[in-house]
Request: fold
Amino acid sequence: ETGVTQTPRHLVMGMTNKKSLKCEQHLGHNAMYWYKQSAKKPLELMFVYNFKEQTENNSVPSRFSPECPNSSHLFLHLHTLQPEDSALYLCASSQDERERTDTQYFGPGTRLTVL
Amino acid sequence: AQKITQTQPGMFVQEKEAVTLDCTYDTSDPSYGLFWYKQPSSGEMIFLIYQGSYDQQNATEGRYSLNFQKARKSANLVISASQLGDSAMYFCAMRARRGGGTSYGKLTFGQGTILTVHP
Reply:
């Protein structure tokens, strides 16, 4: 199943680097999400875009900057990250986050290591 | 506030046996949706099954079924005839309306249960 793709799958970066994570969905969905999953912690929602409008910013530090140019693409721009930002970053998409039955489909994730 | 609780950090099951993964939830909204996801070691979250709060019957999807007990606010996942490939982390999640409004918002996830299937 390649409905939601993420690149790169693995990323190692220094604290002074700037990098971007990319997510693309081929499911015709209207909502896209970024989640952070750290070891031994529950899944943390970071950002939500519904019909290209940002509807959620879950108190995420400004060193993470999302971009949603259209309903199929979502980026997460990273700059001056900290070692504690090392985690699995998951992208998801769904039809419409406002609906009760709305099901999110996830990508394979990007495993980020900050040195 | 919405909350999902998965009290079993880890579960073990013998291959071909059935296993139940527990999930309890808390919401004051009578209209909500419950979801189960599987996360293998590769990292991808795979959607398994959905149950709506007004659904009269328990949801089933192949070897997965949801034991939905509304009064107890529990939505346990039952996996029948376990396979080695079922070894993974399993997450329960819920969506309810936010702040008494009419639209639904983010999914609230539980802490997860690691299932290990023994041959």
Observations:
- Chain B has a mean pLDDT of 94.
- Residues 95 and 106 of chain B are 6 Å apart (CA to CA).
